[in-house]
Amino acid sequence: xxxxxTVALAGNPNTGKTTLxxxxxxxxxxxxxxxxxxxxxxxxxxxxxGERLRVVDLPGTYSLTAxxxxxVVARDFLVQDRPALTIDIVDASNLERNLYLALQLLELGxxxxxxxxxxxxxxxxxxxxxxxxxxxxxxxxxxxxxARSGKGRTQLIETAIEAARAGIRPRTFxxxxxxxxxxxxxxxxxxxxxxxxxxxxxxxxxxxxxxxEKDAQILEKGRIAAADISGQLEAIALRTAAHISATLxxxxxxxxxxxxxGYIHAMMKGVVQRQATKDRMYLSDTLDAVLTNRLVGPLxxxxxxxxxxxxxxxxxxxxxxxxxSMFGYxxxxxxxxxxxxxxxxxxxxxxxxxxxxxxxxxxLIMFMFFGIAILEDTGYLARVAFMLDRVFRMxxxxxxxxxxxxxxxxxxxxxxxxxxxxxxTLRSPRERLATLLTAPFMNCGAKLPVMALMxxxxxxxxxxxxxxxxxxxxxxxxxxxxxxxxxxxxxxASTPFVMELxxxxxxxxxxxxxxxxxxxxxYIRKAGTVILxxxxxxxxxxxxxxxPAQSLHTYEKLRTEELISxxxxxxxxxxxxxxxxxxxxxxxxxxALDAVDRKESEAALRNSIAGxxxxxxxxxxxxxxxxxxxxxxxxxxxxxxxxxVSTLGTAYSLGEIAPEETGSLPExxxxxxxxxxxVAVSLLVFVMFYAPCFVxxxxxxxxxxxxxxxAFSIVxxxxxxxxxxxxxxxxxxxxx
Length: 736
Prior knowledge:
There is one protein chain. By secondary structure, this protein is an alpha/beta fold. It folds into 4 domains: 2-166, Rossmann fold, CATH 3.40.50; 179-274, Helix Hairpins, CATH 1.10.287; 294-544 and 608-736, no CATH class; 546-605. The chain contains 32 helices and 9 strands. The strands form 2 sheets. Strands 2-3-4-1-5-6-8 form a 7-stranded mixed sheet, with helices on both faces. It has a two-stranded antiparallel ribbon with strand order 7-9. α9 runs antiparallel to α10 (227-248), α23 runs antiparallel to α25 (584-607) and α31 (694-704) crosses α32 (707-733). The termini are far apart. The relative contact order is 0.07.
């Protein structure tokens, strides 16, 4: 029976490819040149149990990037002639180097299998290779052979015929190339898919990779196919290359190669066992022997995390104080320069005390981002993911989920949106869904101002420790929630994991500063645009409708009565300069007048739209220790978590406390009735875990393919957060 199927043989030079080809085809082979090029073409027929395959021996090549004529020929045959199966012949004694081509074949999206040749040589070098584990990790058949002796030949042919007849394409295979390249690839993929650019021939992500690698052949084809789309892709590639050069002092091609080899190196840890040798270990291996050790590694990881927070809070304290003083000065300046009225209220309460409350934490955010940049640029974060894989599998997640968690703010300061998008690399729909639903539990940069505010107000003497404990809490709740989801609504089996371990790098000062500034600027830009706009809207909701004339008359009457009751003190207050010492009776009168002002301001805030919303929720929120002002802030937090700080600033500014008691927002909260460390902890837990911000919800719905999962994240997260806050507050009250 003639199957009519074509099988291609690919592989590095000197891997025994020609030996295998001769063994399969015997005398039934022909040699010539590929049309138009002087590269040898060999093809022949293979017969087995009455079935026949056409076997094509491709030129030996180390990669599929068009740097040589052999690589162009091999790649063109694979994408244009589309063989039913490609057998990648790999030298088992040099497995790590040879698998580089295998990864590129998988990224190209063609059906492949691996022939592990020279197994005898590998064994003689003390290497034991788990072929089944390698097949599981790559998602393709792997057959050990010795082409020279014919060992494994029959199994190889039978597996090849079965795979070729099945016609099953491999699963989508994607490698993360780091945040900078991944974001560029995502943007390019969207352009390619939307414009159907070369998609009939190549996968969209593969085309994007070729543009980053400056593949001359693909660039030429792209310009011919659609010059405008090609121009957009080339512009992104140029910007990315410039950014990589400035931050890491390298170029995309090298970075891509590093991550591929890092991926392979990590995979080898579970596939290859080596006998003890006296060979010199590479620096990365030497460091990993300690940093990823099963016992010592996690302890070092926790110490590094605690050290990061200690560094952040210790060295940001002074510049944060400068920012608070600056915004306090601006508020005083506006208070003296502007006449009383709505414009003054908007400037001070809506803008300075609102958005300014968020911007005041810029130094802390900057120090946090600087520390994270060091961990990223050295390659240590990848090791964190590697160590946590074993833990994640216990909770029904995939090792690749670790990076989604870290990107979302697993070390504090990330963003849930790219974290949710990072779940794309998970091939299991259930694991991907569990990851994108729980990644928002991490402490993203939007939550940091709230955490910094509460810590500064109530836990100033233990800032780093509290932040460290909150980070551990975020991971614990996320993992337990994932276990719950994986056991109920999205139950299913887990899939194997491979995590790339890029080589350790010594980060450059320039690169660290650029990465720190980029993220800090994103935070500042968001605070200066989105948060400012929301702060103004919230100010309007907390200002209108204003008190009716009858209520205003009542408070004016109370002030008049206080002045009439102490005419001498009233005259002293009226004539006294700003810093003059006052008599006891004058001080008492001022306090009485301030009390009336405070009652009027609170009544006005309660009467506003936001006040009515906050008050209506107070019956329920009191169970968790939240008053109506806090409710206003939490409702605004559904749009963006940073708004919580700005709204609290506006609420307590509009609620005017006595002038001599005015201070920074942390000081205001610490001295306000109804606030204490227990309420602060309850609020922190609720903010950490309640509904993701609106943009994240949209992203979850888009990535999950249904708005029901976006709605589910709002309901599930908020319900869980409120239950935890109520439990903390109610139990805590028993001991206070």
